[in-house]
Amino acid sequence: MSFAEQLSRLQAFLDADDLHEQALDYIAAHGYLTALAICPEPVAEREWIDALFAEPPHYRSDAERDEIEATLVHLKTHISRQLAGEEEPELPCDLDLGDEPDDSDLRGWCIGFMEGVFLREAVWFEDAEDEVSELLLPIMVASGLFDEQPEFAEIARDQDLVDSMVEQIPEVLTALFLLTQAPEEKPALLKPRHH
């Protein structure tokens, strides 16, 4: 079975209605795996798979479980390769929150990404808190998870600012990946800041 076929089976499985309501759908799972691929500390497979589903799904068979879990691991590796490569990582959704941000795929992707960050939140901010916070900002804004906070509410009101932030997400992912996975390349990436 090709990777594309595996992915479409994974997508059908994750987007089915019978998963736990807190389980991540395919788009959110992609965001989540992207965060795990960037995370400075590897998270054990069993832990992140269990967290993705919130509670064990009802698999039809052990073979189905093995296939779904293997495809998730494969997808995470695929995302890591994209992040480490020359080209910008591709998101499985448009870089646009649309008229109804809460219903947009991008919001789902960003929520999934933040779920991945929350698995190891302290580790993300350990080494380069300012840079990581700055790079994560577009994803945090697009996730809508922080809209209660005044500075996020203020950004959310500025549609043009939100749009320009959202468009930066692919390059932000590459920068985060280099920052956490290849820190020796860091100086060239981050421009000096003028306060």
In short:
The chain is built from eleven helices and no strands. With 195 residues, the protein is mostly helical. It has one domain (3-189): Four Helix Bundle (Hemerythrin (Met), subunit A).
Which keywords apply here?
195 residues, 11 helices, YgfB-like_sf, YecA family protein, Four Helix Bundle (Hemerythrin (Met), subunit A), YgfB-like
Measured between the Cα atoms of the first and last residue, the distance is: 54 Å
| Shape, per Cα inertia axes | globular
CATH fold call: Four Helix Bundle (Hemerythrin (Met), subunit A)
Strand content: under 5%
Reading the helices and strands in chain order gives: HHHHHHHHHHH
CATH level-four homologous superfamily name: YgfB uncharacterised protein family PF03695
In total, how many beta strands?
0
* Helical content (DSSP H or I, runs of 4+): 55-70%
Q: Mind summarizing the main beta sheet? A: none
Radius of gyration: 17 Å
Architecture, CATH level 2?
Answer: Up-down Bundle
- Which structural class fits the helix and strand makeup? mainly alpha
CATH class: Mainly Alpha
Protein name: YecA family protein
InterPro entries: YgfB-like (IPR011978), YgfB-like_sf (IPR036255)
Pfam family, one: UPF0149
Organism: Pseudomonas fluvialis
Describe the structure.
It holds the Pfam family UPF0149. This protein has a single domain, classed as Up-down Bundle (Four Helix Bundle (Hemerythrin (Met), subunit A)). The protein is 64% helix and 0% strand. It has helices spanning 3-14, 26-38, 45-53, 62-84, 105-118, 121-124, 129-143, 150-157, 159-167, 169-181, 186-189. The longest helix has 23 residues, at 62-84. The protein is globular and about 50 Å long. The model is unreliable at 191-195 (pLDDT under 50).
